[in-house]
Amino acid sequence: MADAPSHETPxxxxxxxxxxxxxxxxxxxxxxxxxxxxxxxVRVRLFGxxxxxxxxxxxxxxxxxxxxxxxxxxxxxSPTLDVEDPVEKAYHLEVSSPGIDRxxxxxxxxxxxxxxxxxxxxxxMVGDKKRFKGKISAADxxxxxxxxxxxxxxxxxxxxxxxxxxxDARLVLTDALIRxxxxxxxxxxxxxxKGEADDQDETDIDAEGDDETEV
Length: 215
Known about the structure:
Layout: H1 21-37, E1 39-47, E2 52-60, H2 67-84, E3 91-96, H3 107-112, E4 117-126, E5 129-139, E6 143-148, E7 158-162, E8 166-171, H4 175-210
Parallel strand pairs: 2-3
Antiparallel strand pairs: 1-2, 4-5, 4-8, 5-6, 6-7
Helix pairs in contact: 1-2
């Protein structure tokens, strides 16, 4: 469930699922930096036993995140994390994209995931369970409908899960999800190539105009 706002929670954090403890302190430090750069935070997670890793998942507003973007974000947040020192022990900083089987942390994430398989945990019982697996059939501003995967005898096949009881949610990697991700990537590449071609055409037209001389 989304934590109640605190002095550590940035006012512009629109995520439904937020961190606690050290992870929350890190999130509060880096969210303003990310927003100023045109990125948004997906998740902070500190994990490891012998060696700690601080994982920062981020993305652009359009959902993209390249290797170069990860490097840019890492360079931008590292100095501030060094100064603020929210993690008591030494750690390795890892900045990554959310990936295909991404965590779902904002309402639009659930709308975009309609038709796909997800794993969900809630902070309170919904029906008689707190863990669910199934396909999202619909989503709106307050929650989403989940078609249960292999529901037990007596379970309702369709369950409504409000956003305000969410503890964790993420996509499950399936062939259908991979196909959709590849199709989206191809569409974005075609749009980018078309945009470059249009820019080149405009440049050529401008160049032709510049060649005109007055007589």
